[in-house]
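Researcher: Go.
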Amino acid sequence: MYMPNAGDRNNLRKRNNIIKVNGEGEIAVQPDTATVNLGVVTHSKELMEAQQQNSIIATQVIHSLIALGIDKNQIKTVDFRIEPEYDFSSGKQIFQGYKITHILQVKIDDLSLIGKVVDTAIDNGANHAANVHFTSRYKDAFYQQALAMALNNASNKAKTIADTLGVTLNPVPILVVEGGDSIQPFESQHVAFAKGAGSTPIQPGQLLIRASISTEYRYHSING
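Model: Structure:
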């Protein structure tokens, strides 16, 4: 039967003398950039007619946004679909025509223009608006701050555990694993907008930027 010697017991103790803790950090920041999806949906019995109608209105919407001051490079198509439409009557499928959907994503650097962008698009023929999404140009820098907070949070937890156990903590962790970032913005899903309904108030709120880590600290008893 193998009996561990003093060196083996010492190594085993070192491997076991570990405190594992998780740390979290969170920062609330004001967003400085937004995107909104604006779309044109048209219906017609004839495919060519539905496409032409959609193209005319979508072009009008784009030109109106550019006239408002939105750079054309900040307007892009994110979805374009052609779908046949059917009605069901007495168990029969009856062809009704075609539905054309063209969704534009618009990036807005001046948050004071969000409501005006939506209103302008609706006034010029857009009949779909959804997913107002706020973010920050400096989210990476803010994430670094949240990450530092997460590490300090883990360190404080480890110190509390060590003090409670009456042991001495090595203040430098032997392992740090980043858990990944999380940016939780205010986000408005599909909202019904009506042409001529007046100015659309959209408030950006705040972004919550989170970081998390897993750490391991070594400790030893005060007596050795």
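Model: Residues 33-136 form a domain with the Alpha-Beta Plaits fold (CATH 3.30.70.2970).
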